[in-house]
Amino acid sequence: MTETLFIGLSLSSILLLIALGLSITYGAMGVINMAHGELVMIGAYTAVLSGIYLNLNFFLALPLAFAVSALVGMALERLVIRRLYGRIIDTLLATWGVAIVLQQLIRLEFGLSFFGIHVEGLGPGLQSMDVPSFLTQPFEIGGVPIQPYRSFIIVVTLLLTLLTWFLMYRTSMGTQVRAIMRNPQIAAACGIDVRRVSAFTFAYGSGLAGVAGVLLAGFKTVMPDMGASTVVDGFLVVVVGGVGSLLGTVLASGLLGQINGVFAILFNDILARAVVFGVVIAIILWRPRGLFSFRSR
Fold first, then answer.
1. Whole-prediction pTM value?
2. CA-CA distance, 79 to 18, in Å (whole number)?
3. In terms of CB atoms within 10 Å, which end of the chain has fewer, N or C?
């Protein structure tokens, strides 16, 4: 029972990190970012490569992956998304194209093949990341088995969620983001630099995706298309929780993660996914705007 709980909570935690970025960026910018899963993949590959070439340990790879994914996200916002604000279908197609390009760059050894340079170990083959040994050895507290790595995932997610809450509700930048979520035109009329705030918001959400990629790489194989399924799961959480709602995102990720974990252990992964989709459909029929969402007046 405890093992099932830890699996469900760790899956929920990774879902939460992925969905937080999606919820904030869609709520503030109205952008459906189909390349968000590839930012998760970039975070995972950053951790793998930093260990190989920079000898960075797992813990140092976390902030590095955040920084790299945030920079990629900011570049994506500046070069592509900024030119397509207010055109949801165009941004969806454009970011989907960016996702395909990023996947292919990884398959082509980060594009170095174009210059006739081969880097050993960077091909399209599967990669793995080494987790510190003390995080892989279960222990017991009061007769209850504890899985240290999954506990670490939960703690990191909790800290980043609290940081996100603080930034959103206790800083001037967060106030501006929430104002843009409500009405970007009025926010701009009040003197808020909507483009600058949107750029930093997008970068922060991308950084969270990068951290999720590192945590995911600890128990899953790192590969170019690993982000394709994660972005779908992230959007499911956003839809269920309500766009722009931090509380809704937290509760939805916990609900869907636990359902997926329990049914995967009791039955199999395929049935677990089917049940998750069934729950999402039922909630959308009951609450089309999600469990928690801003009320329009």
1. 0.89
2. 22
3. C
H or E element: which one contains 227? helix 227-241
**d(Cα 175, Cα 165) in Å, to the nearest integer?**
11
Give me the pLDDT at residue 159, please.
Answer: 96
Give percent helix, percent strand, percent coil of the chain, each to the nearest 5: 75, 5, 25
Residue 84 · residue 90 · CB < 8 Å: yes
Q: How far apart are CA 83 and CA 88, in angstroms?
A: 12
Helix (H) or strand (E) holding 262: helix 246-266
**Residue 10 resides in a domain:** yes
Residues 104-162 have pLDDT tens digits of 888 876 544 444 444 444 444 577 888 888 888 888 877 777 889 989 999 999 999 99
The closest alpha carbon to 213, from 106, 286, 123, 117, belongs to 106
Phi, psi angles (nearest 5°) of residue 141: -125, 110
The span from the CA of 22 to the CA of 295, in Å, is 20
Please report whether residue 247 resides in a domain.
Answer: no
Domains in the chain, number: 1
Helices (H), 54-189: 58-79, 88-107, 148-169, 172-182, 184-189
Let me know the angle formed at the C-alpha of 212 by 207 and 218, rounded to the nearest 5 degrees. 135
Least Cα distance to 99 among 118, 81, 82 occurs for 81
Expressed as residue numbers, the domain containing 52 is: 2-112+142-227
What 3-state class would DSSP assign to 269? helix
In a domain, 249, yes or no: no
CA angle 146, 148, 149 (to 5 degrees): 135
175 inside domain: yes
Q: Rounded distance, CA 108 to CA 268, Å?
A: 34
